[in-house]
């Protein structure tokens, strides 16, 4: 594919500017370009062409000198990100350099970043779940945060719109708390997962265990191939089988002839025009030359990722907005959310020793939320709820490390698969809390001399109460499902480990308490749209990316119609 | 267990027994010194000899190749040289030396020179007393991980080096780089050995 137009210098004025090319930026680019707008996508990192720039996509362990291990030099680039456990030699080139891009942890916070075309859409977990009105009404009902300015009916058609193009596999169940998507065929559960599902659903009225709903093609779609079950997604997929900006939205935007993508472009600020009351463009720093440039456009989409978008807005000061663009409310930078992570249980399953599976499925199981759905499921231990992800599989040779054994028979025994194991780990909704915040730090500057972010956030009582119940419930479910050697755990991870940062420029009904309106427009600068995770008013307990896609497509199409009406 | 044994046991695991270099070299000079037939990038000859003997005891040749057949020791030396930072490198060298010193203290010679019976005794003791690795989920361990002594780290790395070698990964384990489909329930007999990837 491709041949992206990357020479943006000749043309300084566009119809639209999109800041960032990750999951939401890719969607903004596609929708705006397909509606005929000349669109400039500003990407702070390098170009990553689909397939061509996936150097590790087919490597087996023995194909590289250190078999996928990081060198000390590689580790030194990721002193923070390495905590995630996700960085290896085969994807290190897709993780941002923590040294060049420092941030300050006022309280411990893991901020995983990806600075290249496609951003974290190359690395994401791909779990896709629609939100329901249980989520959109939650703030209004229990009084935490402010009311969402939209409801499920406002976003439902946009979920369908993005799902049809992205390709989401899963099983329709008709659960009110987890609305069905437009689905491609579901992936299969393995023997043990089917067994555990049966037991849990029999033991507990109203609990379901389903195959994960994921942005992987189980049938070819629009020239993209179906998943080959290699599970090497985070190196880039040669088949384009999982959704990424690189494989899906940016090529579509490019096909219109309306896209220019400028790499190495760090957006320093958005330029606010006091006379028109709108933004007139953006100021960027070329990361290679350190040159400062300005680009103009009629509309600006902020899709730099939750915290980076907020950082740009905070850095965009003017007489009208001395505390950051759109920050009349004082809420910019506040109400940072994530999902709790790594609390659950695992155990062994007996009776399936003659069974195995084929393929490395990039997906697991999902147990949808089952608390506080209605009067019957209400608990007084916490508000909102949580869901579980997990999977079953047979232990491999790695189990030998712990076996009190060695020698020839030991070695040969490890050639055969070990016991079946099964685990679940919870993801709890995080309440919006004004005290969980980020702010500009002018003492710590990045490689380009720009202020950085200080992050000051921690779990509240409600999240910790949920983690306790997650652990208890996980253990109990596995016990009642008949598992052996059950181990329950809570790693007590700080915020950020969920890699679901949300909030800090929330949508709302009232400009006095929110940064964005119901169409993702910045209050007081209506031609600036924020449609990445920064816009989120609450966090639900399900993975957020699908909702970013839908909100972005909705806002982009709204922006186009407003432009046509000369309202922007 | 008497106190003397308890001390020895602790010494072996924590590697706190120290034989002075002078004493070691004196003893070594009394008989022919073993050498490896490859040039270590990181370990010294004594340490390389230890490693070769260690991985050969953990994963000896049977009907399938042994650790030395697939160059587990050479690969581990390379890993120490290129994937370890300085403090981790120093730790490895110190721990190997301590392990050998403890063997010498308790059994009279370094690990590689012990009889098969004594090697087995040393490793059995280490197995019984070394903390286990916690299981992991998605790249990180779960629960509170107790410090894992050098013995199990070394064994774990030897297993990885063995099973991730091309010979074992491609020709002995079930190798399927592009499965093309996911089948959740099939007879194990259709696959045979565990999947390599």
TrEMBL record, chain A:
Cofactor(s) needed: FAD
Keywords: FAD, Flavoprotein, Oxidoreductase
Highest taxon of the lineage: Bacteria
Annotated ranges, domain Glucose-methanol-choline oxidoreductase N-terminal: 105-340
SUPFAM superfamilies registered for this protein in UniProt: FAD-linked reductases, C-terminal domain, FAD/NAD(P)-binding domain
InterPro entries: FAD/NAD-bd_sf, GMC_OxRdtase_N, GMC_OxRtase_C, P2Ox-like
Coiled coil: none
Domain Glucose-methanol-choline oxidoreductase C-terminal residues, every copy: 432-551
Keyword Oxidoreductase (UniProt): yes
Protein family according to the UniProt entry: Belongs to the GMC oxidoreductase family.
Name of the protein described by the UniProt record: GMC family oxidoreductase
Species per Swiss-Prot/TrEMBL record: Algoriphagus pacificus
UniProtKB/TrEMBL annotation, chain B:
Sorted UniProt keywords: Signal
Record's signal peptide: 1-19
Pfam families noted in UniProt: Gluconate_2-dh3
UniProt-recorded name of the protein: Gluconate 2-dehydrogenase subunit 3 family protein
Organism lineage: Bacteria, Pseudomonadati, Bacteroidota, Cytophagia, Cytophagales
């Amino acid at each position: 594919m491709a041949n992206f137009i990357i020479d943006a210098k000749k043309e300084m004025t566009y119809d639209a500017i999109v800041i960032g090319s990750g999951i939401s930026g890719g969607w903004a680019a596609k929708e705006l370009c397909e509606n005929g707008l000349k669109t400039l996508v500003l990407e702070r990192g390098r170009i990553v062409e689909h397939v061509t720039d996936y150097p590790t996509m087919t490597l087996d362990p023995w194909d590289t000198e250190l078999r996928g291990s990081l060198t000390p030099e590689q580790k030194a680039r990721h002193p923070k990100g390495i905590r995630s456990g996700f960085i290896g030699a085969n994807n290190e080139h897709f993780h941002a350099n923590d040294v060049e891009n420092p941030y300050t942890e006022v309280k411990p916070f893991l901020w995983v970043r990806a600075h290249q075309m496609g951003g974290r859409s190359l690395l994401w977990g791909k779990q896709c779940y629609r939100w329901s009105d249980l989520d959109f009404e939650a703030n209004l009902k229990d009084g935490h945060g402010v009311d969402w300015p939209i409801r499920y009916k406002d976003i439902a058609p946009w979920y369908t719109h993005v799902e049809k193009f992205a390709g989401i596999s899963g099983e329709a169940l008709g659960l009110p708390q987890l609305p069905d998507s437009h689905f491609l065929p579901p992936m299969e559960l393995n023997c043990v997962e089917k067994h555990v599902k049966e037991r849990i659903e029999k033991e507990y009225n109203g609990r379901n265990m389903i195959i994960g709903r994921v942005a992987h093609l189980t049938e070819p779609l629009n020239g993209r191939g179906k998943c080959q079950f290699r599970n090497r997604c985070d190196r880039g997929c040669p088949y384009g089988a999982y959704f990424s900006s690189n494989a899906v939205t940016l090529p579509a935007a490019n096909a219109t002839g309306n896209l220019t993508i400028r790499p190495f472009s760090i957006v320093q600020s958005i330029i606010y025009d006091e006379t028109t009351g709108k933004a007139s463009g953006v100021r960027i720093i070329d990361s290679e030359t350190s040159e400062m440039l300005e680009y103009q456009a009629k509309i600006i989409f902020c899709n730099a990722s939750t915290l980076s978008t907020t950082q740009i807005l905070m850095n965009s000061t003017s007489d009208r907005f001395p505390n950051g663009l759109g920050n009349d409310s004082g809420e910019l930078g506040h109400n940072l959310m994530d999902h709790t992570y790594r609390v659950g249980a695992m155990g062994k399953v007996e009776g399936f020793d003659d069974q195995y599976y084929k393929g490395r499925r990039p997906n697991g199981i999902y147990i949808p939320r089952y608390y506080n759905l209605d009067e019957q499921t209400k608990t007084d231990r916490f508000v909102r709820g949580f869901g579980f992800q997990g999977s079953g599989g047979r232990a491999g040779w790695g189990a030998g490390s712990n076996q009190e054994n060695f020698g020839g028979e030991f070695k040969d025994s490890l050639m055969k698969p070990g016991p079946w194991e099964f685990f679940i780990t919870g993801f709890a909704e995080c309440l919006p809390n004004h005290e969980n915040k980020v702010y500009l730090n002018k003492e710590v500057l990045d490689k380009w001399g720009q202020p950085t972010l200080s992050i000051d956030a921690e779990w509240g009582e409600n999240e910790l109460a949920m983690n306790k119940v997650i652990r208890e419930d996980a253990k109990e479910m596995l016990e009642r499902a008949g598992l052996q050697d059950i181990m329950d755990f809570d790693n007590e991870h700080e915020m950020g480990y969920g890699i679901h940062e949300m909030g800090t420029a929330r949508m709302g009904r009232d400009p006095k308490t929110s940064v964005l309106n119901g169409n993702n427009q910045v209050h007081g600068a209506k031609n600036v749209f924020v449609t990445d995770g920064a816009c989120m008013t609450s966090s639900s307990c399900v993975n957020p990316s699908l909702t970013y896609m839908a909100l972005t497509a909705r806002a982009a199409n709204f922006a186009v119609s407003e432009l046509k009406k000369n309202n922007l | 267990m008497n106190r003397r044994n308890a001390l020895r046991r602790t010494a072996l695991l924590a590697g706190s027994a120290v034989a002075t270099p002078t004493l070691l070299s004196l003893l070594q000079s009394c008989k022919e010194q073993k050498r490896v037939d490859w040039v270590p990038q990181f370990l010294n000859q004594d340490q390389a000899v230890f490693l070769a003997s260690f991985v050969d005891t953990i994963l000896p040749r049977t009907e399938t190749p042994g650790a030395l057949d697939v160059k587990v020791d050479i690969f581990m030396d390379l890993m120490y040289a290129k994937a370890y930072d300085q403090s981790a490198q120093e730790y490895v060298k110190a721990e190997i030396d301590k392990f050998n010193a403890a063997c010498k203290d308790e059994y009279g010679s370094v690990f590689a020179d012990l009889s098969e019976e004594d090697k087995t005794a040393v490793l059995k003791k280490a197995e019984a007393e070394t903390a286990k690795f916690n299981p992991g989920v998605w790249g990180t361990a779960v629960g509170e991980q107790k410090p894992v002594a050098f013995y199990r780290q070394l064994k774990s790395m030897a297993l990885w080096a063995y099973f991730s070698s091309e010979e074992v990964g491609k020709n002995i384990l079930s190798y399927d780089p592009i499965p093309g489909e996911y089948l959740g329930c099939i007879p194990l007999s259709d696959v045979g050995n565990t999947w390599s990837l």
